[in-house]
Design a protein that fits this description.
Strand order of the largest sheet: 1-2-7-4-3
Low-confidence stretches: 1-6, 8-20
Distance between the termini: 90 Å
Oligomer: single chain
Largest sheet: 5 strands, mixed
Bound molecules: protoporphyrin IX containing FE
Mean pLDDT: 93
Number of strands: 11
CATH class: Mainly Alpha
Order of helices and strands: HHHEEHEHHHHHHHHHHHEEEEHHEEEE
Length: 507
């Protein structure tokens, strides 16, 4: 009995010593760590800062601890960067060193431990996936191949809204219809397919599974198992749910989309001599046939586009509409520009967006104030690194608070105001492609968003057509839409999908 107690005491002392060495290794002379709140054993700063590390809470912490600070979340290091200079260092100058992605138990499930592109570490696999995906998805040729399809989809939204008389009186939750539009925009590119209506059973299944995937990955619920590995057994139920969603979802992609396209490819003439253009999946399947990627990688391409492209663009459209409803004078000014430049009733097309500076300014301002990915997708350094004069231990999660960079009052005039004019006046040189490190809605550098080339024209066409065809207002009895935000691990969207009154303009 006594021996057993002694053994336990010795074991505890040994564990404490190991923990002390680990902490002193980080805090000790060898490492000069960034400032931050003082961590307590086991939990680190977790109990002090809580789970919801959204862009606003991290902005408050930056005001206390500076433009670079460190949080210990259980056993994980989290480094938050909040100045244009340090953002440049992470994303550009030391883009290779900080070009990996953090993984966690949940993302490991959804990405098959990094077999995808978005969440994989920086290296050979990422380079190959990014190269293989560029031609099918991320070039101007793709925009030209599909822009008429996007214009058609926006036109269908306008027609459906006009068909529903309630839209003009009680209002409608426009997001639901726009969601179908975004699925169609992306499924045209991927598979040359579209869904006929919101009741299409396949669309409904996809929507539910993608929604679940997003909810499970963005939730803070699993933090404890991620931060403190010995608690991981308690996550068993959560991880089981993740596995089920992942498997059902990939099977759906395979059975209903990828295999269909394979069958069609079998009947296609070589090099598309029949005149039909290849869709993205044809290119991806070519890469598989050449042995560059395997069947799982093909499915993860579909998974990545489903998570990275559809909701992000949809959230941005939703935010733009909400801001235009809450700022009728801006909405009117935009409508005047469309009427004047294009002529009344002439529907905006992708090439027109280039000669509509106010439309572009409205979109830029939406992406500034309501950034869909306000902390970028978390970066990570595989090796020990240096940043801003501090040591950054290997495998730290690096968050660039892009939202704060674009909303810092010392860098922007009245940043809390929705004022598109800023992008025609004092910020007229600032573009969304990262030419200014204060404004990075798509990131910049190696891991920046390749989808910007598609997202901007889709936003322009959709927002432009809505404003041309409708006067958008809050529902009766409400003077403004509720723009409360909802954040996740790194996403930001509107909390309540707004009901919007859309009064048709005579065409
Ligand atoms: C308004 C819409 C969008 C916004 C605001 C947005 C924003 C972002 C941001 C901030 C990142 C991370 C950058 C970083 O970590 O440094 C990212 C990554 C990515 N985005 Fe987008 N995105 C949008 C639309 C799209 C679309 C339409 C696609 C695809 C068709 C796409 C595909 C990707 C991919 C594949 C990555 C990962 C790149 C990598 O890790 O190498 N995004 N996006």
């Amino acid at each position: 009995m006594d021996l057993l107690i002694l053994e336990k005491i010795l074991l505890s002392l040994f564990a404490a010593a190991v923990a002390a060495i680990a902490v002193s290794k980080l805090r000790g002379k060898k490492f000069k760590l960034p400032p931050g709140p003082i961590p307590v054993p086991i939990f680190g700063n977790w109990l002090q800062v809580g789970d919801d590390l959204n862009h606003r809470n991290l902005t408050d912490l930056a005001k206390r601890f500076g433009q670079i600070f460190l949080l210990r979340m259980g056993q994980r290091n989290l480094v938050v960067v909040s100045s244009p200079e340090l953002a440049k260092e992470v994303l550009h100058t030391q883009g290779v060193e900080f070009g990996s992605r953090t993984r966690n138990v949940v993302f490991d499930i959804f990405t098959g431990k990094g077999q995808d592109m978005v969440f994989t570490v920086y290296g050979e696999h990422w380079r190959k996936m990014r190269r293989i995906m560029t031609v099918p998805f991320f070039t101007n040729k793709v925009v030209q191949q599909y822009r008429q399809g996007w214009e058609y989809e926006a036109d269908e939204v306008v027609k459906d809204v006009r068909k529903n008389p309630e839209s003009a009186t009680k209002g409608t939750v426009l997001r639901h219809r726009l969601q179908l539009m975004m699925y169609n925009n992306m499924f045209r590119i991927m598979f040359d397919r579209r869904f006929e209506s919101m009741k299409d059973p396949l669309f409904m299944k996809l929507k539910v599974l993608n929604g679940e995937r997003s909810r499970l990955a963005q939730s803070f619920e699993y933090n404890y198992g991620d931060f403190i590995p010995i608690l991981r057994p308690f996550l068993r139920g959560y991880l089981k749910a993740c596995k089920e969603v992942k498997e059902t979802r990939l099977k759906l992609f395979k059975d209903h989309f990828v295999d269909e396209r394979k069958k069609l490819a079998g009947t296609r003439k070589p090099e598309n001599k029949d005149g039909s253009l290849k869709c993205a999946m044809d290119h991806i399947l070519d890469a598989q046939q050449k042995g560059e990627i395997n069947e799982d990688n093909v499915l993860y391409v579909v998974e990545n586009i489903n998570v990275a492209a559809i909701e992000t663009t949809l959230w941005s459209i939703e935010w733009a509409i909400a801001e235009l409803v809450n700022h009728p004078e801006i909405q009117n000014k935009l409508r005047n520009e469309l009427d004047t430049v294009l002529g009344p009733g002439v529907q905006v097309t992708e090439p027109d967006t280039q000669r509509l500076p106010y439309l572009q300014a409205v979109i830029k301002e939406t992406l500034r104030l309501r950034m869909a990915i306000p902390l970028l997708v978390p970066h990570m350094n595989l090796q020990d690194a240096k940043l801003g004069g501090y040591d950054i231990p290997a495998e730290s999660k690096i968050l660039v608070n892009a939202w704060y960079l674009a909303n810092n009052p010392s860098q922007w005039k009245n940043p809390e105001e929705f004022r598109p004019e800023r992008f025609l006046e004092e910020e007229s040189k600032v573009e969304a492609n990262g030419n200014d490190f204060r404004y990075l809605p798509f990131g910049v550098g190696r891991r920046s968003c390749p989808g910007i080339i598609l997202a901007l024209p889709i936003l322009g066409i959709t927002v432009g057509r809505l404003v041309q065809n409708f006067e958008m207002m809050p529902p009766p009895g409400q003077s403004k839409l509720d723009t409360t935000e909802k954040g996740g691990q790194f996403s930001l969207h509107i909390l309540k999908h707004s009901t919007i009154v859309l009064k048709p303009r005579t065409s």
